């Protein structure tokens, strides 16, 4: 079964970036602490990262995040999605206007201009096709940014919410939640490592 999984790192005070994020500093001031776990040698951190990336049939991201990862200081062979852990899934970007050019031409990009629901639907189709080709169930991962994940959760598009709670208080930045539709969650898993607390919830419809 292909699930829609929102997967994002967050500070103790609820921010997914530090203050003043931008194309050349996507995580903002101090925001690197949010992703310490993703580069950790802790075996539980590695297992959680590998589990998520191994099941990635397609990945959804917003335009601001795309501009960061495709920018000059963005992803490379060592810091891309699941670098060293997985092949390259399809990427679906929610945007009002597709970019004029793409730096990361070795990745499979689809730009959806008709809204988040359509982007998730397109990603589900890609994940289902990859599942059929690979002979195993693959998921759609909503990797952010915060507005994309929050909007998807509010719209009822998310099956699973996976939070990586970093032991840092950023004080300001991009909040994950800014109000919206209430949702009931069922806690399924908690893993505490040396760098984060990994929380997994089923989202009730």
Notes on the structure:
This protein is 23% helix and 26% strand. With 205 residues, the protein is of the alpha/beta class. An eight-stranded mixed beta sheet has the order 4-3-2-5-1-6-8-7, sandwiched between helices. Strand 2 (56-62), helix 2 and strand 3 form a beta-alpha-beta unit.
Compile the SSE list and pairings.
Blueprint lengths: L3 E8 L31 H12 L1 E7 H7 L20 E5 L13 E5 L3 H19 L4 E6 L1 H9 L5 E7 L18 E8 L4 E7 L2
Parallel strand pairs: 1-5, 1-6, 2-3, 2-5, 3-4
Antiparallel strand pairs: 6-8, 7-8
Could you list some keywords that capture this structure?
205 residues; alpha/beta; 8 strands
Characterize this entry briefly.
By secondary structure, the chain is α/β, with parallel strands linked by helices. 23% of the residues lie in helices and 26% in strands.
User: Counting H and I runs of at least 4 residues, what is the number of helices?
Assistant: 4
Helix content: 10-25%
- N-end to C-end Cα span: 17 Å
Query: How much beta, percentage-wise?
Result: 25-35%
* Count of strand segments: 8
